[in-house]
Amino acid sequence: MHTEPGPDGQHRCWWCLSTPQYIAYHDDDWGYPVGEDQRLFEKLTLEAFQSGLSWRTILEKRDTFRLAFAGFDAQKVAGFDEGDVARLLQDKGIVRHRGKIDATINNARRLLELQASGTSFAAYVWGYEPSEAPTPGIASSPASVAMSKDLKKRGWKFVGPATVYAFMQAIGMVNDHLPTCAQHAKSEAARARFERPTA
């Protein structure tokens, strides 16, 4: 785990330097707090699709994913039927994995159930924010294990501890920019300003 200088000379986490798109994602998106249900649903879904693949593959397809899944509007995705599944399985712009497609539709329905119970998905998710600083290089954490177990109990699919931890990194619940990364302090400042969602 290390940082390397990018095209502008700024040190960044080593994994993001392969393409300008990847650098932009690292600088402006990854590790910054998210508090809206729709954006959280998108991020968790894309982390689930990433399972077994590189994140770069998902990032390059992200705009097409958004089109294919109605902007990750859970109300719309929850209404997808077999015709939509067939359409998605023919869409070369996304990852055509039947299990992950079915899981996305299922998870949209579970998200609506959570909202109907009187809480937002954002409040639920941020309720698992750990108090301790992250350990660099880990693939899961006690908090991600706990959230994964509870999501599975609620009927969610493709939400293992590693997927949930990657989601926690992506939404800024933990700041996993390396301390020598130029974005570490910016992420930490954004986390300090962020108003944690409540039900």
UniProtKB/TrEMBL annotation:
Pfam families: Adenine_glyco (PF03352)
Segments traversing the membrane: none
InterPro entries: Adenine_glyco, DNA-3mA_glycosylase, DNA_glycosylase
Domain of life: Bacteria
Protein name: DNA-3-methyladenine glycosylase I
Naturally occurring in which organism (per UniProt): Pararhodobacter zhoushanensis
Lineage, highest ranks first: Bacteria, Pseudomonadati, Pseudomonadota, Alphaproteobacteria, Rhodobacterales
